[in-house]
Design goal:
- By secondary structure, the protein is an all-alpha fold.
- The chain has helices at residues 2-37, 39-46, 53-83, 86-112, 114-132, 137-150, 165-170, 197-207, 209-239.
- Helix 4 runs antiparallel to helix 9.
- The longest helix has 36 residues, at 2-37.
- It is elongated, with a radius of gyration of 24 Å.
- It holds the Pfam family Tetraspanin.
- Keywords: Glycoprotein, Lysosome, Membrane, Transmembrane, Transmembrane helix.
Length: 240
Amino acid sequence: GAKMGCFTFVKVMMILFNLAIFLGGGTLLGVGIWVKVDGESFLKIFGALSSSVLQVVNVSYLLIVIGAILLVIGFLGCYGAQKESKCLLMMFFSVVLIIFIAEVAAAVVALVFTGLAETLLTGLVTPLLKEKYGVNDTFTHIWNATMTEVNCCGLNNYTDFNNSYFYETHGSYPRQCFGVSPSLAHPHLRGCFLQGCFKQILEEIRTNAGVAGGVAAGIAALEIAAMAVSMYLYCRLDEK
């Protein structure tokens, strides 16, 4: 009787928890599709969330992907627990485990290969900055928004724009490279952001590492708990 009561309680909690995930995923998916289809009305209602329409489009893809993943996880967990389906519970466990492993792998790669990432990005992005900035609107919008938000210039520093299409055409560096008092002269003038975006982004990450680590630990704990509960239900179904 006590075992049966415990099983029922865990089952109900599993259903409610995954129902919340399912509804949250549906909401994110809906918002993502809305932003993708009609980003302008979204901005009018919620304000200018970014200086680039392209960023809104990128956010929409992110919301759609996360929403879809949460929908799948929520459905498998909720329906699997409600129907007491071993197959669905195992699928739920497997999907959450894959996501957990991917997150751990991403964290390890981020810690170990930061220097390698900088070298690779320098080799790939710097030539693109020289060729595409000021030519390709999409590419230019992304970099303008990034440099404005992060207070940086180029990937490594302002010299990434030396001998670039933009510098050759305008005879200056991008105005986003300058601080409070914009200038079209040389970047050594007061107010120029001499630091590159890669180092600035790394600095931002380090500054907020505590918060990010806490959030990551919380998500990992939820994933581990979800896997443990699904495996508990899976194993108890053998005893029923």
